Amino acid sequence: MNTFDAIYSRKSVRSYTGEKVAEAEIRELVKAAYASPVGMGRFENVMLTVITNKDFLDALDAKTAEAFGDPSMHPLYGAPLMILVSAKVNGSPDANAAYSNPAGIVENMALAAVDMGLGTCHIWGAIRVLNESPELLAKLDMPEGFTPCCAGIFGKSDDKYEIREILEEKIKTVYMK
Question: Bridge partners of 40?
Fold first, then answer.
């Protein structure tokens, strides 16, 4: 698959078979993360946590559903793999440019997932809940100074990627000449 096909096909997949992601596929996703741009090349300011522990994923899923006010929902959609991207952030996490690095890393992994035929979805809400859950954060054994910023979930899915029409009016665009 070429780059533009992957970009024009990428979508949020919210349905997974539950089948485990192969170790070789996980390594490829992580390699795509390593190829991501990071501001000023400061890779020491970001880290990945590759999570396949079903008990942890189920606990985060349930806690997030509860926080969203609907205990019957599954905000991680049954995906068997979540790759959490954390960063060293300074000041207010809401206003910190350090969030751009993790977002770019997740997007690189998402494009790799499309190429590999794996379902993927960017995860944000569950990460807010994670940051408010000391008991779940403690299980991550994260080095001091790192804050979970965003994640991608990945897994086998019956959803298929198809090149879609891209509406050019979707995002307000101003050309300054």
Answer: none
Rounded Cα distance between 12 and 26, Å, is: 18
Distance between CA atoms of residues 102 and 26, nearest Å = 17
Q: What are phi and psi of 149, to 5 degrees?
A: -110, -45
- Report the predicted TM-score, pTM, of the whole model to 2 decimal places: 0.94
Angle between helices 23-34 and 100-116 (to 10 degrees): 140
Span 4-58, pLDDT tens digits: 999 999 999 999 999 999 999 999 999 999 999 998 888 999 999 999 999 999 9
Phi-psi region of 117 (alpha: psi -120 to 50; beta: other; left: phi over 0): left
Which domains are delineated in the chain?
A: 3-155 (3.40.109.10)
51-90: per-residue pLDDT in tens?
A: 999 999 999 999 999 999 999 999 999 999 999 999 998 7
**What percent of the chain is helix, strand and coil (3-state, nearest 5)?**
45, 15, 40
Only one residue has tokens 């189920």, namely 58
